[in-house]
Specification:
Structural class: mainly alpha
Distance between the termini: 14 Å
Order of helices and strands: HHH
Radius of gyration: 24 Å
Number of helices: 3
Helix content: over 70%
Organism: Blastococcus brunescens
Pfam families: Phage_holin_3_6 (PF07332)
Keywords: Membrane, Transmembrane, Transmembrane helix
Largest sheet: none
InterPro entries: Phage_holin_3_6
Protein name: Phage holin family protein
Number of strands: 0
C-alpha cells in the first residue's frame, strides 16, 4: 500500500511539474501574442481609417477580436474537459491487489 501511495505521489508530482512549466511558457507566449495582436490591431484600424471614419474602424477591429476570443474560449473549454487528473498507473495497480485495501 505504501508503494502505491509513493507511486501516486511521484506521478502527480511529475504531472504538476509539466503543468507548471507549460503554464509559464503559455504566459510568455501569451504576452508576446498580446503585443503582436495590439500592434497589428492598431495597424489594421489605421488602415481602415483611411477609408472609413476612425470610430467605425476601431469598432470593426474590436468585433473581429471578440470573435477570435469567443472561438479561443470555446476551444480552451473543450481542451480542459479532456484533462484526466487521475493517476492511471496507480489505479491500475491498486485494482490488481484488491486484498491490500481491505482492513484485517
Amino acid at each position: 500500500m505504501r508503494q502505491e501511495l509513493e507511486l501516486a505521489k511521484v506521478e502527480l508530482k511529475a504531472e504538476a511539474k509539466k503543468a507548471g512549466t507549460g503554464a509559464g511558457l503559455f504566459g510568455v507566449a501569451g504576452f508576446a501574442g498580446y503585443m503582436v495582436a495590439l500592434f497589428l490591431s492598431l495597424a489594421l484600424m489605421w488602415a481602415l481609417a483611411s477609408a472609413i471614419p476612425t470610430g467605425w474602424a476601431g469598432l470593426i477591429v474590436a468585433v473581429l477580436w471578440a470573435i477570435v476570443g469567443a472561438v479561443a474560449g470555446l476551444m480552451g473549454k473543450k481542451k480542459f474537459q479532456q484533462v484526466n487528473p487521475k493517476p492511471e498507473r496507480t489505479v491500475e495497480t491498486l485494482q490488481q491487489v484488491p486484498g491490500a485495501l481491505k482492513p484485517n
